[in-house]
Amino acid sequence: MSTASLDRAELKPGFGTQIGGVDLAAAGDAQLADIVAEFHRTGALVLRWQSLTPEQFVRFGKAFGPLEGHTLQDFTLPDHPEIYILSNRVEDGRPVGAHNDGIGWHTDLNYTAEPAMCTMLYAIAVPPEGSDTLLADQCAAFAALPAQRQAELARLKQIHSFEYLANMRSEGRKAIPPEVLRANPDVVHPLVRTHPADGRKALWVSSLTPGFVGWSTAESEPVIDALIAFVTQERFVYRHKWQVGDVLVWDNRCTLHTGTLFDDTRYIREMHRMWVKGDRPY
Fold first, then answer.
1. How far apart are CA 211 and CA 158, in angstroms?
2. I need a labelling partner for 261 at 20 to 30 A (CA). Which of 1, 148, 149, 221 fits?
3. Cβ distance 249 to 66 under 8 Å?
4. What does each C-alpha distance from 26 to 31, 82, 116, 226, 276 come to in angstroms?
5. Per CATH, the architecture of 7-276 is what?
6. Buried b (16+ CB within 10 A) or exposed e, 95-134
7. Mind giving me the DSSP string for 219-233?
């Protein structure tokens, strides 16, 4: 698929694309297909100044593939269960969305057999400062390693555990229902992941996991910490500063991401999030 018709600018050299001149609410199927092709090629997309109804946001998401459900259902949008609300807003004494979700370097749904291919956020309300989203290019990070280290890491497999993640992030949150834990058993994925679009390799390391297969958690933790520190160096990271109407899409197969904090006593941040189904890492 040709993407020559798109108004494109790199987010970082060799990574990501900001696409201009597109109104997603009115985009035709051919234009959406070009946008999806650009996503597979570069790993992340930014489209600013959008105004989307939930139906239009869902249509955009489905251009990438079947939409993924959400592990927890507390804050899905009424009538649109594909959309999850991220917000610190409170109405009638109850939160309307999940607050401070996504703080800490990770990939979405890594604890499933077929993790989400991509994540997309649509900005409804944005603080004037803070709340940036950071994306780390794992292909660039892997390519920067010496060949011998690449070969060593390619032999490792990492355990991914929803229960371990939930326990690490349990403070101040409701207990995870037992049926949710049973539905999300531990899985094992390769540490070095192949991108199906073109075969490029990503160092697909995740924090907050029990560790590597055949290693104890105590043995794994310092190696994982060192890898996270390496792959999240500034040279590999794009920092997205939000504006209302932004749509940000990133490829979970070749990136890590994290949110950042903001003054939630003064400002409201509200996003709509969708996931697109992925496939088994290899």
1. 6
2. 221
3. no
4. 10, 21, 26, 45, 21
5. 4-Layer Sandwich (3.60)
6. ebbbbbbbebbbbbbbbbeebbbbbbbbbbebbeebbebb
7. HHHHHHHHHHHHHTS
CA-based nearest residue to 203, from 173, 235, 236: 236
Domain boundaries, the chain: 7-276
CA–CA gap between residue 144 and residue 160 (Å, rounded):
25
Backbone φ and ψ for 121, nearest 5 degrees, come out as: -120, 140
Which helix H or strand E contains 210, and what residues bound it?
none
Whole-model pTM: value is: 0.92
